[in-house]
Design a protein that fits this description.
alpha+beta, Alpha-Beta Plaits, three-stranded antiparallel beta sheet, 2 domains, two-stranded antiparallel ribbon, binds iron/sulfur cluster
Length: about 180
């Protein structure tokens, strides 16, 4: 044992340091809040309950049923069922998420080329059965209306999840002269 360690032990230096720290914080305002009477606003962009983006033009889901989100999902908790519509376009018949299996990684949001799925900042949800956490397309669209009302959804997407299609748009073909230079 060194002299320093011996002095610390004999004079209870570490205990006194700990007590001093406690005393220092004793008269500071409390950091705890009385939840749920008091609550803090969630941080912008925090990952909560899922929502399917509602297209303001058509009033329907923006999702085209490509299945990229489901393919990326590490929990395999997204289930998509599609069929062929009258105009031979894919129709999303069912889009379902088993929320209890989700790990909130947001890979689904990142993978979606249309910005059609988001994680809202709503995190205070509970239920008495597993079924309540099985979110259907209709319920996911309702989440968009409830938690991304007004401009909130648009701002959220622009700030955090700009649709990848914008980033990876096909570039215009190079002009003849430019090609010759390369
Ligand atoms: S947040 Fe992650 S785990 Fe949850 S549904 Fe999306 S990809 Fe799956
Ligand atoms: S990646 Fe987007 S468009 Fe494709 S199925 Fe998922 S939510 Fe729909």
């Amino acid at each position: 044992m060194t002299v320093n360690e011996l002095i610390k032990k004999v004079f209870f230096i570490e205990i006194l340091q700990g007590l001093a720290l406690t005393l220092k914080h004793l008269f500071k305002p409390a950091v705890t809040i009385q939840y749920p009477a008091e609550r803090k606003e969630p941080f912008a962009g925090s990952r909560g309950l899922h929502a399917l983006v509602r297209d303001s033009g058509t009033g329907r889901e923006k999702c085209v049923g490509c299945g990229l989100c489901a393919a990326m999902c590490p929990s395999q908790c997204i289930h998509i069922y599609t069929s062929e519509g009258d105009d031979h376009k894919k129709v999303v018949d069912r889009y379902e998420i088993e929320v209890l299996r989700c790990v909130y990684c947001a890979f689904c949001v990142e993978a979606c080329p249309y910005g059609a799925i988001v994680l809202t900042d709503h995190f205070e949800y509970s239920g008495y059965s597993r079924e309540e956490f099985y979110y259907t397309k209709e319920r996911l669209l309702e989440n968009w209306d409830k938690y991304m009302a007004g401009n909130k959804g648009k701002e959220y997407l622009e700030r955090f999840w700009r649709p990848r299609a914008v980033d990876f748009a096909t570039p215009a073909p190079a002009k003849k002269e430019e090609r010759a230079k390369q």
